[in-house]
Amino acid sequence: GGDQAVVKDRFNFSFYGGRKREADYRSKVRSRVTANSLMELIGQSGHVFVMGHKNADLDAVGAAMGVCCLCRKRGKKCNIVIDLEKNAAPKLIAEIQTVPQYRDIFITGQDALLMADNRSILIVVDTNRPDQVECQPLLEAITKVCVIDHHRRAADYISPVVVNLHEPYASSASELVTELLQYTVEKKDVLPIEAKSLMAGICLDTKFFNVRTGERTFEAAASLRRLGADTTEVKLLLQSDFQDTMEKYEIIKSARLYRDEIAIAALDVSTTRVLAAQAADELLNISGITASFVLYPDADQVIISARSIGDANVQMILEPLGGGGNAATAGAQVKNADMKETMDALVESIDRFYDNN
């Protein structure tokens, strides 16, 4: 679609084009129709499960909280499927669990499989790839699936779906869910923790309104501010402790320049996704750097966190490595590969992108 073509052979996908930035073709009419369709589906369902991607971040949790608000409006039981031991939003989750309405909201994928029946629906937020969801068996078990996502469509897209709100121009899944709330609930229906969670998701993905921020992003943030969300409190959620901060700067210290404008940090030891992402963000603050890549080993795979500013499209660079995301933020999990093999593949993909662009 657009300026990108995909060729599928027996083994993989080849991508051509896709260099233009996404244009905002979203219509408020479409958002309203989608909101009404989703509310109707929730009303007809039994149990509602909401699920983000593995290692859920503030945007995935924030969008899930917004969906829970929609379900409460329709009087439906809702649970968020998440790994409480392995996620990137521990502070927010701990705060959510202190709210009476959300005390038992978080469940594991195994619990969800036991609770699901033929009237259940699954709403997937902040990802569109079946291999990236928190619990893939749950995705396969439930027949009625909805997707709310802002990443560019991957080759292995979740299908079939009943309701699909897929807007690559949006800053975040939280922005999309906030728009749905504007058409379906009143101010008194939204709890302060829900507004705060949605604001946190937007702030995380826009780096506090510095990247991928459009007119609709500010409209969504303004509506959340009216609902009681405070960006100062969100800033506290995004703070790192002293040890993590030191580790982040060690990652930055290990970075090397490539093509005079690309920073690549390849680590010998594992780290967390959050620190890798923060280090990639921080590298873009260096004058002259237009793209950054942080690589680290994780069991039998290598994880890549990539960020860009300007014309560099990190999603296109990581697509040949099995990654995805959008032009400014992308990631990849290169399975059954060591660091040298992954670095060689990354450098080859970078060269191909810049030589053909």
Main beta sheet:
6 strands, parallel
What is the CATH superfamily of the largest domain? inorganic pyrophosphatase (n-terminal core)
Distance between the termini: 19 Å
Question: What portion of residues is helical?
Answer: 40-55%
CATH topology of the largest domain: inorganic pyrophosphatase (n-terminal core)
How many domains in all? 2
Strand content: 15-25%
Task: Tell me the structural class.
Answer: alpha/beta
- The CATH class of the largest domain is identified as Alpha Beta
Secondary structure tally, helices: 13
Strand runs, count: 14
SSE string, helix = H, strand = E? EEHEHEHEHEHEEHHHHHEEHEEHEEH
Radius of gyration: 20 Å
Mean pLDDT: 92
Please describe the structure with a list of short key phrases separated by commas or semicolons.
Diaminopimelate Epimerase, Chain A, domain 1; 2 domains; 357 residues; alpha/beta; globular; 6-stranded parallel beta sheet
SSE layout and pairing:
Layout: E1 4-8, E2 13-17, H1 28-44, E3 48-51, H2 58-73, E4 78-81, H3 90-96, E5 106-107, H4 109-115, E6 121-125, H5 136-141, E7 144-149, E8 163-166, H6 173-184, H7 192-206, H8 215-226, H9 231-237, H10 242-253, E9 256-258, E10 262-266, H11 273-283, E11 291-298, E12 301-308, H12 314-318, E13 324-325, E14 329-335, H13 339-356
Parallel strand pairs: 3-4, 3-6, 4-5, 6-7, 7-8, 10-11
Antiparallel strand pairs: 1-2, 9-10, 11-12, 12-14, 13-14
